[in-house]
Amino acid sequence: MSVVACPSLADVALPPEVRAALDACKSVIVPSSRAELYELTLGPAGGPVFSVDYDVNGVPYTEATVTRCSNGAAVNYPEDYMRRRDPDCMRIADDLPTDKPRYRDVFGSEFASVKQETLDWLSEQELVVVPFKAGGPRFGYPSLAIIPANAAFFALALVDLQGWVTFDEIGPFTPRSILYVAPPFRHTHFEGRQVVVHDRTDTLHEIFAYNLYPGPSAKKGVFSVLLDIGEHEGWITAHASSVRVTTPYENETVIMHEGASGGGKSEMCQEIRREDDGRILFGTNVVTDEPYHLTLGETSTLAPVTDDMTLCHPSVQRGDGSLVVADAEDGWFVRVDNMKSYGEDPAFERAVIHPQEPLVFFSIDGTPDATALPWEHTLDSNGKRCPNPRVIIPRRFVKGVIDEPKAVDVRTFGVRMPACTSEKPTYGIMGMMQVVPPSLAWMWRLIAPRGDKNPSIGESKATTSTLKHGGMVAEGVGSYWPFATGTKVGAANLLLKQILDADRVRYVLTPNQHIGAYKVDFAAEWITREYLARRGGGKIGADHLTPARCSLFGYRPREVKIDGQQIRPTILQPENQSQVGLEAYDAGAEILTSFFKSELSKFLTDDLDPLGRQIIETCLADGSVEDYVALTPMHY
């Protein structure tokens, strides 16, 4: 359908150059339903396999293939590189404050000419144009996406994440953000690299995506828009999951889990995994190969609230010292790399194998007209499974999901930890559960340390080398820093304000992968979740806590009992593990403390909140946990 025949699109207030490009376009398709958009993803013939090709300097190039499966469309990329987000793809084209690389500094010229070339190229294509609300249907900001029709799967991924909405439902509007997709430009202008350019004004955030993997644009690009809006309006979209945990005694606790990539956000909403005999494998000693099991009868019931982008919008706050959250998405971009065979997560498997409507899969080995299975991952060129297979699942397909905003009782923060032994000391010395005051909680979120490879992004050589040799890298403020377009100090101030305003929230750190010499994967996070819920809102009195040996870890519980079983004290105090010891623990604490000091020093500018400066200076002076509590009292 042409633009002229689309009065709803005509009611959208567009920049003149964008309106001109659409007016010159061959045709503009505005799907009337999700079903119509899904049919477009399969190409003119409707499958069984559709090749998404573009002319690159006179030569056809396949960017992706779309396979028609019985339960959805399986999208695959010929290049391994395109199957995960490039962490260095964001470029800023405007002159607003930013700490991110500016387009002109990287490419040696202004973006304006390439922006016009992009619009000119789009004007020569058949396009799909879809409206969406950045931030989800309920709280979102009216926005627009302009996408080549042969890449309709990208449009489907976007509206599945943000929620299907029509122009008629929104009514006449001025877009707060516009997303443009021009895949061949990565070859003609950017040497094959993923590049996503952000061009901001105070009222419009434009995203130019020069790639077809939706991670850095349809997913994290929209996150960037929300962070930019929040910076203008004084609120945060957290990089977090949240879940309501209902104990067997019907006590309810809402836990919000944050952390760098791989820090356990998705896992916080997952059930505790059990062995075939029903026991829980808490961990296995990496030196002695001794397993440590727990036996729990009935565990708590989980009701997901948010999965990855957690909206802390001012319209839902109560002003009573709580933090109220809502989901910023209508669908979840779920990574299924940890699914290797049938039966590992029956509820999720049922939802994606027999969905209410066809889904979109990424890097899943789909066979035409057969069922796309979440554990059949596409193989990379090295013959190994792609580490970043995904499926987009609407929230409404998730069992027990909560649609209303919820007040958070506890904010947990997950950190991937390497094994630590006396033979090989590392910073993997965090106990199962560390209770911290707000000041320490803020510091951990400023840095968001990531100590293990993240399968959802392609690492730089420097990062790969650092992590391979037991080092850490900082993911940055709130762990949302990779997607933010503003300044680090501005984000740090906003995060500190949020923490201070929500003074009834409790803060806990929890490790995954390892505790000292024990390989635990995500068991520590799951057992901590269970324990906090059974305490009733995560309440742990001061008399149940004692300072950790490393002050950055705040306090540790004196003991933890669940169903009458006492967690091994050495899981709470890794320094007492016979394979670790005080010397290795202290060496790990020194690694961690030095890293914190190095990273935190970067925030000491004149723009930093004075309290934030005091907190950081306490760390630089090797302050005690009591010093941090003096700055920000704990809520018991």
From TrEMBL:
Lineage: superkingdom: Bacteria
Upper lineage: Bacteria, Bacillati, Actinomycetota, Actinomycetes, Micrococcales
Name this protein carries in UniProt: DUF4914 domain-containing protein
Pfam families documented for this protein: DUF4914
InterPro entries associated with the record: DUF4914
